[in-house]
């Protein structure tokens, strides 16, 4: 058997994280890391561990996912989530789902059900469900419903009332065509100051399989039925084991303004970039060329988003022994938002490490980026 080796990285959102709440953001990241590690130590695969991490993040009132999510224009909570398994390349997602405490569990169940093969009469199983259909499918598959009013917190309700007053005031001040653009920019600024907290995680398990997942309550005051990047294929998350064409296994999760991330398919773009030799340079160029300077976002004043990236391969410098196996893991994060809270942990760590990454002083959110990361070698002995 193999001694345990695994690594995971996660984030509680790209947006704005105040110093006064820094401890809470870091604490929830530590709890999520520990929950996933406990699963991995018990023999869980990457896709199961990444879902466990997101359940912990969804249950926190400090994140914009699951409990305490942003409310939409109608004062309701509608969530998006997706998950991808790098081994099977299967994907599951839900969009604009209400009345479910942990949307990632529905996405994960869609993934696992699809892996079972075709339904009766040769029907193709769904991988992406939205709205009432997603809710009913979840309940029929044993996932308990949760009253929507119980998912709102004091913080999310007060934020909704505050944003609603601002919108009403802005509409009263709207006296002409020129004011429309100003109102839109004002709304974007509000959304950019702490309401973009999609949560996500990436994992490599003891067998070297990777997985990624994301979950989000979406933009504050969004239109009912709006689906963000957290549910879209190739936009919210991506995971792909190494194969003949790709020397590296990669897992990516994104956070930020969903419309920007959808139009650039940032998760898949970053995954493809990670096949280059220099991971740091590849991510820097992907964020700059495929996101900030993307022709698909040329009309945007500020391009808001963040990513965590994990890539791994067999260690070529491992000791020349048939009893020793190693995986080299590189983990990076980058963001154009004011800040991004991340956590990470490996099999060798007794506790998770957390960090709130911030843009360099004097830089403009949406027009510049921060990038950080590290390297971890996971060695194991074949007994």
TrEMBL record:
The active site is at residue 198. It comes from the Eukaryota. One of its GO terms (cellular component) is cytosol. It holds the Pfam family Asparaginase_2. GO terms for molecular function: threonine-type endopeptidase activity. Keywords: Hydrolase, Protease, Zymogen. Residues 169-193 are annotated as: Disordered. The record marks 197-198 as: Cleavage. GO terms for biological process: protein maturation; proteolysis. InterPro entries: Ntn_hydrolases_N (IPR029055), Peptidase_T2 (IPR000246), Taspase1 (IPR037464). Belongs to the Ntn-hydrolase family. Intramolecular proteolysis generates 2 subunits, alpha and beta, which reassemble through a non-covalent association to form the fully active enzyme. This is Threonine aspartase 1. It comes from Lates calcarifer (Barramundi). The gene is TASP1.
């Amino acid at each position: 058997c193999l001694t345990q080796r695994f690594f995971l990285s996660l984030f509680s959102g790209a947006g704005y994280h105040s110093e006064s709440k820094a401890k809470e953001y870091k604490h929830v990241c530590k709890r999520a890391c520990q929950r996933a590690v406990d699963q991995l130590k018990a023999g869980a695969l990457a896709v199961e561990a990444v879902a466990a991490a997101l359940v912990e993040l969804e249950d926190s009132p400090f994140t914009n996912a699951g409990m305490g999510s942003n409310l939409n224009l109608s004062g309701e909570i509608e969530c998006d989530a997706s998950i991808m398994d790098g081994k099977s390349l299967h994907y599951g997602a839900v969009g604009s789902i209400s009345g479910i405490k942990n949307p990632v569990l529905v996405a994960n169940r869609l993934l696992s059900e699809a892996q079972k093969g075709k339904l009766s009469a040769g029907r193709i199983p769904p991988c992406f469900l939205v709205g009432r259909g997603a809710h009913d499918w979840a309940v029929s598959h044993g996932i308990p419903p949760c009253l929507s009013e119980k998912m709102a917190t004091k913080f999310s309700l007060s934020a909704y009332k505050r944003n609603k007053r601002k919108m009403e005031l802005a509409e009263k001040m709207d006296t002409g065509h020129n004011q429309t653009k100003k109102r839109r920019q004002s709304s974007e600024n509000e959304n950019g100051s702490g309401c973009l907290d999609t949560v996500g995680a990436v994992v490599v398990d003891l067998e070297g399989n990777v997985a990624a997942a994301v979950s989000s309550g979406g933009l504050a005051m969004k239109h009912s039925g709006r689906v963000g990047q957290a549910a879209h294929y190739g936009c919210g998350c991506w995971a792909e084991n190494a194969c003949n064409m790709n020397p590296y296994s990669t897992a990516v999760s994104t956070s930020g303004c969903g419309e920007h991330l959808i139009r650039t398919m940032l998760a898949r773009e970053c995954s493809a970039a990670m096949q280059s030799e220099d991971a740091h340079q590849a991510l820097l160029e992907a964020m700059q060329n495929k996101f900030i300077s993307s022709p698909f976002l040329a009309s945007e004043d500020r391009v808001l988003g963040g990513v965590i990236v994990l890539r791994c391969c067999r260690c070529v410098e491992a000791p020349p022994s048939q009893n020793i196996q190693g995986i080299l893991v590189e983990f990076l994060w980058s963001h154009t938002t004011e800040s991004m809270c991340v956590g990470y942990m490996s099999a060798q760590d007794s506790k998770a490490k957390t960090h709130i990454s911030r843009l360099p002083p004097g830089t403009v959110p949406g027009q510049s980026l921060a990038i950080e990361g590290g390297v971890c070698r996971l060695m194991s002995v074949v007994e």
